[in-house]
Amino acid sequence: MGHGARKQLAKLLDASERCGDFSTRIEMSARALRIEVDGVGVLPLPLRAPVTKKLIAQARQARFGRGEQTLADTSVRDTWEITPDRITLGGPDWDRTLSGVLDGVRTALGLPPTTVLRAEPHALLVYGKGQFFLPHQDSEKDDSMVGTLVVSLPSHHTGGELVVSHAGRSVVHQASREKLTFAAFYADCLHEVKPVKSGYRVTLTMNLLAERTRPAGGRRWPGRRPGPLPDRTLHRAGRRALRLRQSENGAPEPPRVPSRPRVHPAWPGLGPPQGCRRHACHPAPPGRRAGRLRGGPRIGRGEGDLGRRTALRPLRLPRRCRALRRLRGRGVRG
Ligand SMILES: O=C(O)CCC(=O)C(=O)O
Ligand SMILES: [Fe+2]
User: Fold this and answer.
1) Could you tell me which residues belong to the region Disordered (predicted)?
2) pLDDT > 70? residue 292
3) Based on the structure, what is the number of domains in the chain?
């Protein structure tokens, strides 16, 4: 990792010591990543239109989950998708860069230093002009998933901002044209991709997994093998992070809603790819519904302002991750 990148991380770590946030963003040199896609080859970064068009030729319409269904509905999600089994990530500095980013993310999100984060590729997404993804939450594939890491590959484009919201606050992540942009957020955050206005936006989405713990001094716990992060450890970590955020924001504890059954994996027939994460979009409760995802008036293509976004909030609570929701007493899943 270069000097500049190290300085940037140090600054980020320092700043975030004081306050864990629900989303964070880090930029890194594009030289850190070598990304190869089956049928296209190694992607030259920054991406240019001819290569991006080759990616689209290899992609399929992206899907999402709603209730028991898996849908490809371009009024909700309009983007191209390449599955992770067709992507190879590498480069001499990639592992070190990613691990530095994950350290920064862990600290910025207010997770304790004993948490070890891992990022697992989920999909390569290509958004052309007018393409978008309406507000939604990402589902967790297992207990260790705590959030999402979106790696935007550098490309010339306008629009296509990633807007992440939680407890009445929103942050907007605009991808760099020259650098890799890493945006991370907790799994309970509502987020959307605004319509791309020009050019192409290309992202690699990754599941953020909290896999094991290590002692604050950097040594492994004696006698412990790496494995899933114990639930209770994650509960405590998230509870502290949540309290910190709530006391800093003055935000009230979110209301509780009844639990809903889990849904089936969102890739029927295809078999769940490794690291599959489901996308769930849920209409708001009746009475608060300004637009519906199915039937009746629809939300405009990606034009949800904050009010509309609120109206489309999922029927479940903000919660850090599946492991943490027991903290709040409810297993609510879309
Ligand atoms: O492309 C992005 O920035 C985010 C995509 C997304 O939200 C998802 O795949 O769940
Ligand atoms: Fe998402």
Assistant:
1) 241-311
2) no
3) 2
Looking at the domain assignment, is residue 247 inside a domain? no
Asked whether residue 209 is assigned to any structural domain, the reply reads yes
Does 312 lie in the same domain as 173? Answer: no
If pLDDT is split at 50, 70 and 90, which confidence band does 39 have? very high
Same structural domain, 145 and 14: yes
CA 78 / ligand 2 centre spacing (Å): 12
pTM for the whole thing?
0.68
| Beta strand spans in 154-231 (E) | 157-159, 162-166, 169-173, 180-186, 190-193, 196-199, 201-213
**Crossing angle, helix 94-108 and helix 3-17, to 10 degrees?**
20
Strand, helix or coil at 98?
A: helix
Pair of tokens at residue 242: 């949540």
Asked if residue 18 is part of any domain, the answer here is yes
Q: Higher confidence at residue 123 or residue 266? A: 123
Mutate to test the pocket of ligand 1, among 61, 203, 207, 267 (most ligand atoms within 8 A of CB): 203
Average pLDDT, the chain: 70
pLDDT, tens digit (0-9, with 9 covering 90-100), for 154-171: 999 999 999 999 999 999
State which residues form the domain around 135.
Answer: 3-214
Is residue 90 domain-shared with residue 163, that is, in the same domain? Answer: yes
**Does the Cβ of 162 fall within 6 Å of ligand 1?**
yes
